[in-house]
Structures are given as C-alpha cells and as structure tokens.
Design goal:
203 residues, alpha/beta
C-alpha cells in the first residue's frame, strides 16, 4: 500500500510541476535554431584571368554560394566596371584578385590607388558587404617580383587598417605556373582554391 501511495505522490508532483518563462524560452530558442539554419552567404570573386582555372561549384558549399567573374587582361583600373554590376546583386562578400597585368612593359597604372578606390566604391555603395583582397601571384614570364611584393605589402597593411580580409598567395610559387609562366597549372589552381576556401571558413 505504501508503494502505491508513493507512486501516486510522484504522479501528482509531476502533473503539478511548473516551468518558468526562462525554461520555455530556452526550449523555443533551441527549436528555432534547429529549424532555421544560418542563411547562405553570396560571395562574388572578381578579377583577371588567373581566376579562370577556378570553379564556382568547387568553392560553393551549404554556407556559401560563390560566383566567379573574370576578364582576361583586366587591370586594376578596369575593376570598377566589373564591381558595379556585382554590387547590384547585393553580395555578402566581394573578393578581388587583380594587378597581374599591371606590370606588363609600358604599363603605368597606379595599382594601389586604384584598388583603394574600388574598396571605397564597395563600402559607399554597399556598406554591409565584406571585402577581401587576394594578393598578386608571382609571374615567371617577366621579372616583377619586387614590384608585386611591394604592392602586396601595401595591400596587406591597407586591409588591416580598414578591417578587410587579405588572402596571402605566397604559397603559389613558380612550380604552380603553366607553360606560359603566367597562368596557373593544376597544382596552382588547387592551392589558389584552398587559399580562397580558407578565407570562406572565416566568414
């Protein structure tokens, strides 16, 4: 008889148990988070023909929808013409890779100034859009090592001061270039893609 009474007491206690508003809110929060995964972020990568070996599908994931837009021979003073249409799509992030063609003989483009102008354009047009700069990849067809290194250092410093992302591609060496010593071979494209994926993991 005592055992039956104890069971009844337990049942009665459970039926009368009250939950605080905090308990209910925490439960609802857990359900909401489970049913609503983070929204996919749209990322647009813009630049020159060094991007041609990359695939949007290979860089995209459940968290990121990646679009790649490149133009062969593009220089930094061309970037604004490619960035403006991209901004109309309101991407969450824009990644810029350019200046490869700024160092051709006879070219006198002020690359650093042009890249800063593009950054200003992005932030004035779409302040919430994150911005990343991909460092210049070394060339093997002409000697631009010192110029590219100087520009990369300035660009990295600028990114830190403005809270932009900087992608360091110094792990792409001459063995990563194709026969023409300008564009990337399979190895180079793989390393470049991984550098970009490392950035996306942070965003």
């Amino acid at each position: 008889i005592n055992q039956k009474n104890n069971k009844n007491d337990v049942k009665q206690h459970n039926s009368n148990q009250k939950y605080s508003d905090k308990d209910v809110n925490n439960s609802l929060k857990h359900v909401t988070q489970s049913e609503n995964p983070p929204a996919m972020k749209n990322v647009t990568i813009i630049g020159d023909s060094l991007l041609k070996g990359l695939k949007s599908k290979g860089l995209s994931s459940e968290q990121h929808n990646v679009r790649i837009r490149y133009e062969g021979g593009a220089q930094t003073d061309d970037l604004q013409y490619y960035v403006k249409p991209a901004l109309k799509r309101k991407p969450d992030m824009i990644v810029l890779h350019c200046a490869t063609n700024d160092f051709t003989p006879g070219c006198n483009i002020k690359s650093y100034k042009e890249l800063k102008n593009v950054a200003k354009l992005v932030k004035e047009t779409l302040p919430e859009c994150k911005l990343a700069f991909s460092s210049i990849i070394r060339r093997g067809d002409i000697d631009v090592e010192k110029k590219a290194e100087d520009l990369n250092l300035k660009l990295e410093k600028f990114c830190k001061s403005q809270d932009h992302f900087f992608i360091n591609n110094e792990n792409i060496d001459l063995s990563c270039l194709s026969g023409g010593k300008l564009h990337l071979n399979k190895k180079g494209n793989s390393i470049f893609a991984n550098n970009l994926l490392d950035l996306l993991k942070k965003c």
